[in-house]
Amino acid sequence: MSDTSPAHPEPVVLDIWCELQCTDCRGALDDVRALRARYGDRLEIRLRHFPLEKHKHSFAAAQAAEEAMEQGQGWPYIEAVLARAEELDRRGEAALVDVARELGLDAEEFDVALIDGRHILIVDADQAEGKAIGVTGTPTYVIGGERLDGGKSQEGLRERIEGIADRLLADTGA
Q1: Which residues have a Cβ under 8 Å from the Cβ of 58 and sit 6 or more positions away?
Q2: pTM (whole model) above 0.70
Q3: pLDDT digit string (tens) for 80-106?
Q4: Which residues, 6+ apart, have CB-to-CB distance to 79 below 8 Å?
Q5: Could you give the CA distance from residue 78 to residue 71 in angstroms, rounded to a whole number?
């Protein structure tokens, strides 16, 4: 009998439904960093976009985050924008382009991406999927089919995510 299991089991996926003008999402970054440090590549952390209507620049910020992903600096860009949520609220798209420039990204390409809307379909698809699974606010985490709402309280969430991740990783032998 041959062993067909992969040398490296698939990582457990943690989807974080986030909005880049949301200060609760900014607060969730400490948990994201701790989870990355604990699990490394055994946990795939994916940002999913859920722009809220009450934040007028959140849809543009989600598109800009996708452009940053394309340019290879997705998470550094996301963290930098979240750190400046108040500035984004005040300055809008100019702040998004400034953050790109500060990180050494192609700021002109960000400008063009925000004008031509090349990332709109990704943002729309994320938002539609979020609504379909019951996401109503940000941050919301989904791991192993369980939805955890961080918008109400971050308290104890990382421990719950770790418990689920540990169980799933044990099941896969990772």
Answers
A1: 19, 20, 21, 22, 51, 52
A2: yes
A3: 999 999 999 999 999 999 999 999 999
A4: 29
A5: 13
